[in-house]
Amino acid sequence: MDVNAAVAAAAAIAGVLTGVIAVLAFRWSEREQKRPTRSSLHTDAVLPPGVDTVLSVLRSSAVVLDEADAVVKASSAAYALGLVRGGKLAVEPMLQMARDTRRDGEIRQVELDLPRRGTGRGEALAVSARVAPLGSRLVLLLVEDLTEARRIEAVRRDFVANVSHELKTPVGALSLLSEAVMDASEDPEAVERFAGRMQIEATRLTSLVQELIDLSRVQNDDPLEDAEPVRVDELVAEAVDRCRHQAGAKQITMAAGGTADLHVWGNRGQLAAALGNLVENAVNYSPARTRVGIAARSVNAPGGDHIEIAVTDQGIGISDKDKERIFERFYRVDPARSRATGGTGLGLAIVKHVAASHGGEVTVWSAEGQGSTFTLRLPEAGAARDRAHQQTAREIRAGGAGLDEEAGRSTPTSPESTAYETLPAPEVLP
Hints:
The protein has 430 residues and is α+β, with helices and mostly antiparallel strands. It contains 14 helices and 15 strands. Strands 13-14-12-11-9-15 form a 6-stranded mixed beta sheet. A 5-stranded antiparallel beta sheet has the order 2-1-7-6-5, with helices on both faces.
């Protein structure tokens, strides 16, 4: 009997101990779950209130580092630039800046050139990095991509240098010629000769200034604000008439044809200037007694019908290396020939900007010694009209009832704009 009592007492004590141990284990488990772990230190909870929201709307790439240089928070732009890899800041100069700022609390800023991620051509990203303390333990790194700004600044700087050089040449020539006229005041033949040269240089200077104005206008103005259906036949006729005198002097035959009654959508003045530049180049760079052809046609495209206006010549042609640069401002395939023809190197740049601003493009086919074909591709007026009507309908459905009445009246196109009559194309060499 005493043995049974002892066993029962031992079992009771064991049960009590088991219960105590279970309770202690449960309490310890709860405490461990609430205790911050090493991984939980790298979550958004360690950021000061509101910082996460502010970082999400910044245009700059943002990275937050803790006291162990681990990344607590990084924006998607920081990953895209390759600043953060494997949870660490991958740019050593920025990491050293963060450590220095954590040590003394000073804000630091520096501009760096970083290798472009995923390319093997050695291209660099220009960035501006700014490091500042964030609270007592964290450091904030903001990185701004300056690559595009640097490129635009370089283009602007080159443009100013080229303009200065191009203006200096005729101005210097006029100055020298005027001195020559003064020295030869008693020689009528010399005065006449120098005066003729002065007139040529003055004409070149006037053309350069006018093309600079035209280029500035097509870059800054929105051609679709005053857009209207423009007859391609009228643009071709105007371009031919503009170059009739130069073509006649070189006995160049000008032939126009293709499809009649085509309409493009855009600014008439800019379109006429663009096509006129193409035809003028074809005449200037063609030998005497050759042919220049202008042909237009309608082309079906997935995004809507387009009009192609091709200008073909039998000139000197363009090499493959030059074809990649001929639409750059002031670039000339043959500088000596450009001086002889009075070219400024801005004509094709104007054509490129006009085509792009009208939703089109300009392309070139050329072979040295075989001539060139420049093709201006623009949206057809009917397709552009339909897109404008769809946009207007969407605005009305969205509540944009206050549409400009004048713009609404300028959108429709006459029924004749969609009726095309095919004419025989002239004999034009490819």
